[in-house]
Design a protein that fits this description.
Blueprint: E1 5-9, H1 14-29, E2 33-37, H2 40-49, E3 57-59, H3 77-101, E4 108-111, H4 117-124, E5 129-133, H5 137-157, E6 164-165, E7 173-174, H6 190-203, E8 209-212, H7 220-224, E9 230-233, H8 263-269, E10 276-280, H9 289-302, E11 306-309, H10 328-334, E12 336-338, H11 343-347, E13 352-357, H12 361-370, E14 374-376, H13 383-393, E15 397-399, H14 410-422, H15 424-441, H16 446-464
Parallel strand pairs: 1-2, 1-4, 2-3, 4-5, 5-8, 8-9, 10-11, 10-13, 11-12, 13-14, 14-15
Antiparallel strand pairs: 6-7
GO molecular function: quercetin 3-O-glucosyltransferase activity; quercetin 7-O-glucosyltransferase activity
Pfam family, one: UDPGT
Protein name: Glycosyltransferase
Length: 466
């Protein structure tokens, strides 16, 4: 029988491509052919920085109308999303039709968040489609409740910092713990429209399966909170070498949109165990100049070695961000500043003692799978909820407190750094989740079983079409 061929489509940003590619690798290990589709601009940068060698993964980049890429601070994000829906639908449709005409149609489609139009396209072609939710299950539940009866309560109280929202099956959430898309000052209200569309698509199916980048032990209640959907944990979706060890050659996501060097690993090798503070704010978040100065001062005040990722703006002739810091020379004596790195490799290094993070979900799940305590510095989207889970539910980190201007001052940052580096309780909890994450991913573990079950279902669907 012909192997099932799954079309896996992701939104073209690092936080979506990474888990998507890892899921593709998991599927190929179970004998499934995967065609990975994202925008032309993202694919171009992926292959330039890390050419893939996965023989069972093929690529089908499509134009989203922004073939030179979305330029943050220059392009309008709302226009980009509209363009992606229009041109993405058009061009992905052509890819699907081409496969049908070749006599080897896609047997199933998997698609990530923010691209509900892929689900509509699958329905148009009567191809079974499954949603890959690349955020925690808790966020899925919050958005579900928002669109199904709790929207007014949240909207009416979102500006009151003392208000606590009680949603079904979830811990009490202060307004600061909710996704930033609910805030009246949020400029990205279109995101809620995309999430609502996604739930509307799911509601047209009977007990639809949703694949979630989490694992059963981590979010047991959240995974079963919405009875009408079958949420299954398939995570953490990070490279095998740092998780189940089944494929020691799988040491990177294979989809980096940014260039980095490897000097930092040699530098980490010279440092004592659990002595280094690792600082990174992901592929999108940008710290204000004031916040960077406070961060720099806090790092210097700890006297500890640090590895700090400061992305370069990418504008030709622009002064590098690190060169604008007033204490640059002091910083480079005490630590190392790099423009990008393979994060999961850094977090798995024995010399790393804590992780200062924006709490994007990939960074959060990588910290859990690596057993590294966290200083949580959330900025927007799901990061605020992830920070709540880190500090109060999983208890693997400390969340910093900002002043009225939204700045975390150096003394507060230093306090959090010392707690994360010294707390035995945080380290114990971090190790517990690391062990449970590996347990879930290994053969016979909950996530491995859930992925295998999904593949069996896809195979069953193939049989039906023979």
């Amino acid at each position: 029988m012909e192997k099932p061929n799954i079309l896996l489509v992701t939104f073209p940003s690092q936080g979506h491509i990474n888990p998507g590619l890892q899921f593709a690798k998991r599927l190929t290990r179970l004998g499934v052919k995967v065609t990975f589709a994202t925008s032309i601009s993202a694919h171009r940068r992926m292959t330039k920085n890390a050419p893939t060698t996965e023989s069972l993964i093929s690529y089908a980049p499509f134009s989203d109308g922004y073939d030179e890429g979305f330029k943050s601070g220059i392009d309008d994000l709302g226009h980009f999303m509209t363009s992606m829906t229009h041109f993405g639908s058009q061009n992905l449709k052509a890819i699907i039709l081409e496969k049908i005409n070749q006599g080897s149609p896609f047997t199933s489609i998997v698609y990530s968040i923010l691209i509900p139009w892929v689900g509509k396209l699958a329905r148009e072609f009567r191809i079974p489609a499954t949603h890959l939710w690349n955020q925690p299950a808790t966020l899925f539940d919050i958005y579900y409740d928002y669109f199904r009866g709790y929207g007014d309560i949240i909207t009416d109280h979102i500006s009151d910092p003392s208000y606590v929202v009680n949603l079904p099956h979830l811990p009490p959430l202060a307004t600061r713990d909710l996704p930033s898309f609910f805030s009246p000052s949020n400029q990205y209200s279109f995101a809620l429209t995309f999430f609502k569309e996604q739930f509307d698509i799911l509601d047209e199916e009977t007990n639809p399966k949703v694949l979630v980048n989490t694992f059963d032990a981590l979010e047991a209640e959240a995974l079963s909170a919405v009875g009408k959907y079958n949420l299954v944990g398939v995570g953490p979706l990070i490279p095998s070498a740092f998780l189940d060890g089944k494929d020691p050659s799988d040491t990177s996501f294979g989809g980096d949109l940014f260039k980095g060097s490897k000097d930092y690993i040699e530098w980490l090798n010279t440092k004592p165990e659990a002595s280094v503070i690792y600082v990174s704010f992901g592929s999108i978040s940008v710290l204000s100049r004031t916040q960077m100065e406070e961060m720099a001062r806090a790092l210097l005040d700890t006297g500890r070695p640090f590895l700090w990722v400061i992305r370069e703006g990418g504008v030709e002739g622009q002064e590098k961000e690190k060169d604008k810091l007033s204490c640059k020379e002091e910083l480079e004596k005490q630590g190392m500043i790099v423009p990008w790195c393979t994060q999961v490799e850094v977090l798995s290094h024995p010399s790393v003692g804590c992780f200062v993070t924006h709490c994007g979900w990939n960074s959060t799940s990588e910290s859990l799978a690596s057993g590294v305590p966290v200083v949580a510095c959330p900025q927007w989207t799901d990061q605020t909820t992830n920070a709540k889970l880190i500090a109060d539910v999983w208890k693997t980190g400390v969340r910093l407190i900002r002043n009225e201007e939204g700045i975390a001052k150096a003394p507060e940052m230093k306090r959090c750094l010392e707690v994360a580096m010294e707390s035995e309780e945080l380290r114990r909890n971090a190790k517990k989740w690391k062990d449970l994450a590996r347990e879930a991913a290994k053969e016979g573990g909950s996530s491995h079983k859930n992925i295998k079950e999904f593949v069996d279902e896809v195979n069953g669907k193939v049989d039906l079409h023979q």
